[in-house]
Amino acid sequence: MAETEQLEDLVPEIDRDFLTEKIAKFGVAKSGNDVLVIIHDFEFPDAYAPRTADLMIILPAGYPNANLDMFWTTPDVKLKNGSWPDRATERGTYNNINWQRWSRHFPQQWRQGVDNLRTFVTTIRRELARGV
Question: Phi and psi of 36, rounded to 5°?
Answer without folding.
Answer: -100, 120
